[in-house]
Input
Amino acid sequence: MHPTLVFSAALLASLLSAVRAQTLVNGQIFTNGLAIVDAPAPNSPMHAGSVTQVAIDISGDGKLDQSASIPGSDKSTRFDSLEIYLVSYQTKLNLTVSSGPGLLTQEQGSTVKHWDYNVSTCIPAGSYNLTFYEASHINDQPCFSITAYPVTVMNDHPTDACSNGTNPLQSFPQLSSPPPHSPWLDGTSIATQPLPTATGSNSANAVVATGAPIALAFLGLLSLLSL
Output
C-alpha cells in the first residue's frame, strides 16, 4: 500500500465517528447529511419482482441551489456523491440500489430525484436497511454521512442466489464523519423524533457499508488534508 494511503487510513480512523441517528419530520427522512428522503417510508414493504421508487429531495426543502447537487459544483455547501444500498445481516446480503453519479445528475431542473429500483426475485424475504452514503461539503467542510432505515422485502418464491449488484458485508461499526446535525434542522422550530431501527439479527445493519463508500470517505479525508 502507498505510504500516503497508510497515513490516511490511520488518520481517518482517528477522525471519524460512528453513524448517528436520522430524523423523521412530517413524513420526510432527514439524513445525516444534505439529502432528504421522501420515499419509501420507514418499514415499507418492498415486493420482489416489482419496482420500489426512491425519492430524494436534494434542495434541503428549498434551501439549496440546484447546481449544488451536480458533482463538481463549486458551491460551499454541495453534494459530492450519493449512493444507496440495500443491506441485511439476516439474509447476508448487501445489494447496490444506486451507485455512481447517475442519481444526482438525472432529472436536471428537478429538486427531487427519483430512482426506480427493481427488487429482484433473487432477494429473500426478510428485514433490510435502505442505506444512504453521502459525500458532501457543508460550508466548505468535507463530510461523509451514512444514514440507514428499516424496510422489509416480501418474497414468497425466491429464485436462485443473487449474483448481480452484490457487495461483501463489512464489519461494524462503520465509521463516518457527518455534521453534528442536519443543516436543514435547527432542533427548535421543527418537532423531530428518532426513526425506529431494525431489531433482532438485523439491528446492526445501519453500520454496514461497501467498498465504494469507504473510498468516498478517503476522498473526503484527502480534501480535509488539502485545506
